[in-house]
Specification:
single chain; about 240 residues; alpha/beta; two-stranded antiparallel ribbon; about 30% helix; about 25% strand
Length: about 240
């Protein structure tokens, strides 16, 4: 009887240890920053800041500018894909698009930063995933940002309104299913063309996965700004849950 109790106790201990190990399994992130034409100077500072943050969190992080990394075998290693200012059209082959889509279908997370909307214009599915496509932008300038949703982890720490300097994109083909987090006050700067309805950060569940996008992140300085990084980190944590 005593031997049986010891065996049961050992089995339960093994289950607890195994469960703890599974819980402690690190999150794996893939940061993709392929550029076809224009290349943002903020890509390198962005990589550095994300590396420091991932190390603090105990996450594994890889970087890629190679569309060939979008295969079923490779993508299944990652909990989230972070598109850090990529640019270009017709970047992915049909098989790479299929692998990307399967990844999202199976619950994958997607984070788009700034120029992620200036990418893959030919692919309607991608446009719906990221939430919109870029059209144009005025010169870099300060603008007032309104917090539309202050309950999300990417915005809960922000004032109801705040001033910020960046390159403000105008968008087309906005996915009506996105949940807006931040919006620009077009009366506070010059060059907004969205008739006062100008979202600049949003999130949504899409096609089996989760997506977060922020239009901030053009300038190098964004990635050394604690406010922007906390906003971005909150978006990444959202798609990882």
């Amino acid at each position: 009887m005593k031997k049986k109790s010891i065996l049961i106790l050992s089995f339960l201990t093994l289950l607890c240890v195994s469960g703890f190990a599974l819980q402690r399994k690190p999150k794996n992130l893939l940061v993709f920053s392929y550029t076809q034409k224009y290349r943002h100077k903020s890509i390198e500072p962005g990589k550095e800041s994300l590396t420091k943050w991932a190390k603090q969190k105990g996450y594994q992080i890889d970087f890629s500018e190679n569309p060939n990394d979008f295969s079923d075998d490779n993508l299944k290693k990652y909990n989230a894909l972070i598109f850090l200012n990529p640019t270009g059209t017709n970047v992915f082959t049909d098989s790479q698009k299929s692998a990307f889509k399967k990844y999202i279908n199976k619950g994958g997370g997607f984070v788009g930063i700034h120029a992620a909307t200036d990418f893959c214009f030919e692919w309607e599915w991608y446009g719906k995933l990221v939430g919109a496509f870029f059209t144009n932008h005025p010169k870099i300038q300060e603008a007032t940002i309104k917090v539309i949703d202050n309950k999300h982890q990417s915005t809960s720490f922000l004032d109801k309104e705040f001033r910020y300097t960046d390159e403000w994109y105008n968008f087309k083909d906005l996915n009506p299913e996105v949940k807006v987090l931040l919006a620009l006050d077009e009366s506070s700067y010059t060059g907004g063309t969205m008739n006062g309805n100008h979202p600049i950060a949003w999130y949504h569940k899409f096609d089996g996965g989760k997506s977060f996008y922020t239009g901030l992140g053009h300038r190098d300085e964004c990635f050394s700004d604690p406010l922007f990084m906390k906003h971005l980190e909150g978006g990444i944590e959202y798609v990882l849950k």
